[in-house]
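Q: I'm a student working through a structural biology exercise. My instructor gave each of us a protein and asked us to get a predicted structure, then write a short paragraph describing it. Mine is Alpha/beta hydrolase. I'm not confident about reading structure output yet, so if you can add a plain explanation after the tokens, that would really help. Here is the sequence I was given:
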Amino acid sequence: MQTNSPTKNYRQTVEIPAPLIFIGKVLQFFSIQWAANYAAKLFYTPFKFKVPKRELPMDNGSIQKHYYVPAIQKEIIIYEYGTSDKKILLSHGWSGRGTQLVKIADKLLEMGYSTVSFDAPGHGKSQGKATHMLEFVAIIHELHKTHGPFMAAIGHSLGGMALLNAIHQGLPIPKLVTIGSGDVIDDIMDDFIERMKLRPEVGQAMSRIFEKRIGKPMNSFSSHLVAKQVHIPVLVIHDVDDMEVPVKAAYSIHQQLPKGELMITNQLGHRKILGDKSVINRIESFVKIPCHENVLS
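A: Happy to help. First, here is the predicted structure for Alpha/beta hydrolase. I'll explain a few features afterward.
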């Protein structure tokens, strides 16, 4: 069922280590601002994971390059997979990697495309410890200038949110696929503060920290808001059993898209969905159809 207004639609399942929670609570006792600064630093820090065996073919078969992104003054790793001039951009999610969408990338290679992906700062093989969604957005714009044009883009989780925002800002990509994308940023931050076992005032102070840095409300980057101005065909894919980004996010985003299609799956969760055959087949069909033939679902 589609909802008329966005509700809380994000929860994280990765447990925050008890010592980090303890430090936050001690800081909170002395100063809300100290606790907010500490929470903001943790909020920007992804977990790094070893490349799993299933991603090794793409890891070994891609051309990998260090690339400096002037807009964020950071160096990242870029993956060029395949040799076709028909390129598709892939964007991983939080704590992901440039090879995370390997099964989708392999299908795209079979279809005659090549893919360009990246490790965001603090992710995969890229240096650094901290990043945030707006740096993902800046990287996407940079890759369009240096490695585009792209015939489509596919984003998982935070990568989907970043692509929606980039297109809202004018990124000229003909088609978009989002998989397990989050939505309301206020909900993401509230959930984080709750898991840190900190008071709501700390979350409010953390929001002010972010908004001072970027000069506008963080919630203005929420997916359902920017989706209203995304006028290209968009396929929104989400699983009912996603325990990191509840399926309500997909309904909220799809409801606002002028040219949206929606695919809801079952029992695939937040990551298994990336390798599911039915999902990959739907992406294949969506990418192959000329833009003017994509219809609303």
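A: Here are two points you could use in your paragraph. The longest strand covers residues 74-81. The chain has two domains: 1-43+185-218, 48-183+222-293. It's a good idea to check both against the output above yourself.
Q: Great, thank you!
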